[in-house]
């Protein structure tokens, strides 16, 4: 089994030495000549009987964050009954006390007519996304709970906490009541733009740290919502420009950075301690590593938790790219009905489809002698963290080269995080993985040849 990393950015790349066998599986060590695989059928080949069922899982490409973009603004009572996210998105929800039902329409959230107008007319939303459907009832309904929400980029997190802030503001109180803390000025600008559109009809006032006029201000803030970087907000607190006595909601956007010990943890803690009133704390991020989780548990106990897993959205997007490029392929996840999963695998086994896209549901126990190539679209990590999952990595690549046949695996490496995981895997298995540049066809062919294969 040969193991190769394809670097999708600048830098070098790899054709490796033999990857050692996993502890749980015998190595594929007998050498046989590998024959060339036949090319994939064209896009106009007969459709798979599974495709129609899988197509139901596709995400609308015309969506905006938080809802489906639509040319016609629906009546407030005509919210769509279906969520805009992939129906296979897995939701994990932990609430220690109380029951919260998800919301399929914005009307179920008892939002003001002004906020509904902002959602439908200004944001052009049609229905809540998965993360919104699960978190908004927790944010908006009494008792107001602290919340930790993790979901991938583009899932609608900004809408969640923006609605939370706008809904909690008393328009008759001319003082800061909601605070959104961000790690960068760019994120402040982005969040302010969303707030401006969504709250257009509410009469709620806001200020941000994104302009020079606000960063150098000396007068006390009377705006009801404040969005800013943590450094400027700290200065405002020290100079008593920002009065937090009326504060109701505090949001940490990109909370993994805001609460990391090597990030803004100590400043964030000082701000939280400066607020003496009972406030609702909302933490939103695409990732939370174990250290950040420990710090959150220590400082924000009994917070509700919602996790929307990304893997199935990624899977469906990869399938769509392959189909658009003329390849006949199917996809499989643990969420599919077992009978449908069996038929998908049988189609792949019989050669009706040449490419099978799968989550880790197939990383163990899937044995097919004709599989020559495994591509890791992303690097395997332990659940809920960025730590490499060595066992899953080994199980994945051992799907190729079974029963004494030759096999090859490629890892798509994008960004420093993936590079760090790959280095950890090399060190763990004491095996060098050669890098190849993503646009170097000759290097790819050489990698395949050095794996003992004539072609893929």
From TrEMBL:
<keyword id="KW-0067">ATP-binding</keyword>
<dbReference type="InterPro" id="IPR027417">
    <property type="entry name" value="P-loop_NTPase"/>
</dbReference>
<keyword id="KW-0347">Helicase</keyword>
<dbReference type="InterPro" id="IPR014001">
    <property type="entry name" value="Helicase_ATP-bd"/>
</dbReference>
<feature type="domain" description="Helicase C-terminal">
    <location>
        <begin position="267"/>
        <end position="444"/>
    </location>
</feature>
<dbReference type="GO" id="GO:0003676">
    <property type="term" value="F:nucleic acid binding"/>
</dbReference>
<dbReference type="InterPro" id="IPR001650">
    <property type="entry name" value="Helicase_C-like"/>
</dbReference>
<dbReference type="InterPro" id="IPR014014">
    <property type="entry name" value="RNA_helicase_DEAD_Q_motif"/>
</dbReference>
<feature type="region of interest" description="Disordered">
    <location>
        <begin position="1"/>
        <end position="81"/>
    </location>
</feature>
<feature type="domain" description="DEAD-box RNA helicase Q">
    <location>
        <begin position="104"/>
        <end position="133"/>
    </location>
</feature>
<feature type="domain" description="Helicase ATP-binding">
    <location>
        <begin position="138"/>
        <end position="306"/>
    </location>
</feature>
<dbReference type="GO" id="GO:0016787">
    <property type="term" value="F:hydrolase activity"/>
</dbReference>
<keyword id="KW-0547">Nucleotide-binding</keyword>
<keyword id="KW-0378">Hydrolase</keyword>
<dbReference type="Pfam" id="PF00270">
    <property type="entry name" value="DEAD"/>
</dbReference>
<dbReference type="InterPro" id="IPR011545">
    <property type="entry name" value="DEAD/DEAH_box_helicase_dom"/>
</dbReference>
<feature type="short sequence motif" description="Q motif">
    <location>
        <begin position="104"/>
        <end position="133"/>
    </location>
</feature>
<dbReference type="GO" id="GO:0003724">
    <property type="term" value="F:RNA helicase activity"/>
</dbReference>
<dbReference type="GO" id="GO:0005524">
    <property type="term" value="F:ATP binding"/>
</dbReference>
<protein>
    <recommendedName>
        <fullName>RNA helicase</fullName>
        <ecNumber>3.6.4.13</ecNumber>
    </recommendedName>
</protein>
<feature type="compositionally biased region" description="Polar residues">
    <location>
        <begin position="1"/>
        <end position="11"/>
    </location>
</feature>
<feature type="compositionally biased region" description="Low complexity">
    <location>
        <begin position="12"/>
        <end position="49"/>
    </location>
</feature>
């Amino acid at each position: 089994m040969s193991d190769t990393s394809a670097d999708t950015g600048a830098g070098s790349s790899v054709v490796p030495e033999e990857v050692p066998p996993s502890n749980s599986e015998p190595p594929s060590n007998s050498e046989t000549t590998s024959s060339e695989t036949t090319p994939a059928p064209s896009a106009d080949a007969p459709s798979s009987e599974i495709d129609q069922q899988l197509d139901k899982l596709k995400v609308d490409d015309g969506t905006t964050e938080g809802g489906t973009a639509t040319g016609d603004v629906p009546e407030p009572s005509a919210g769509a009954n279906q969520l805009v996210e992939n129906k296979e998105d897995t939701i994990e929800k932990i609430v220690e006390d109380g029951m919260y039902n998800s919301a399929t329409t914005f009307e179920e959230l008892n939002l003001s007519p002004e906020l509904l107008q902002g959602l439908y007319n200004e944001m052009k939303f049609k229905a809540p996304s998965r993360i919104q459907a699960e978190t908004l009832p927790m944010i908006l309904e009494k008792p107001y709970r602290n919340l930790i929400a993790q979901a991938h980029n583009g899932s609608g997190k900004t809408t969640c906490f923006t609605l939370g802030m706008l809904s909690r503001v008393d328009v008759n109180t001319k003082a800061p009541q909601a605070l959104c803390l961000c790690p960068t000025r760019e994120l402040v600008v982005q969040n302010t733009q969303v707030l401006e559109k969504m709250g257009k009809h509410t009469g709620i006032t806001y200020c941000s740290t994104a302009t020079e006029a606000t960063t150098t201000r000396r007068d006390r803030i009377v705006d009801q919502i404040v969005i800013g970087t943590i450094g400027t907000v700290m200065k405002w607190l020290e100079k008593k420009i920002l009065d937090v006595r009326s504060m109701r909601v505090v949001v940490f956007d990109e909370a993994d950075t805001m609460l990391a010990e090597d990030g803004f943890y100590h400043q964030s803690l000082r701000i939280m301690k400066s607020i003496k009133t009972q406030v609702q704390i909302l933490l939103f991020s695409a990732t939370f590593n174990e250290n950040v989780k420990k710090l959150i548990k220590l400082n924000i106990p009994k917070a509700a938790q919602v996790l929307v897993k990304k893997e199935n959205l990624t899977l469906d997007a990869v399938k769509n790219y392959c189909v658009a490029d003329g390849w006949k392929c199917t996809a499989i996840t643990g969420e599919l009905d077992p009978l449908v999963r069996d038929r998908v695998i049988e189609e792949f086994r019989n050669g009706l489809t040449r490419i099978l896209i799968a989550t880790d549901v197939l990383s163990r126990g899937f044995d097919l002698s004709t599989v020559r190539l495994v591509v890791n679209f992303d690097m395997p990590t332990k659940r809920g963290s960025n730590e490499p999952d060595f066992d899953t990595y080994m199980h994945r690549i051992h799907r190729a080269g079974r029963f004494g046949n030759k096999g090859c695996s490629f890892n798509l490496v994008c960004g420093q995080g993936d590079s760090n995981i790959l280095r950890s895997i090399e060190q763990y298995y004491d095996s060098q993985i050669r890098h190849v540049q993503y646009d170097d066809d000759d290097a790819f062919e050489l990698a395949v040849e050095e794996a003992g294969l004539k072609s893929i």
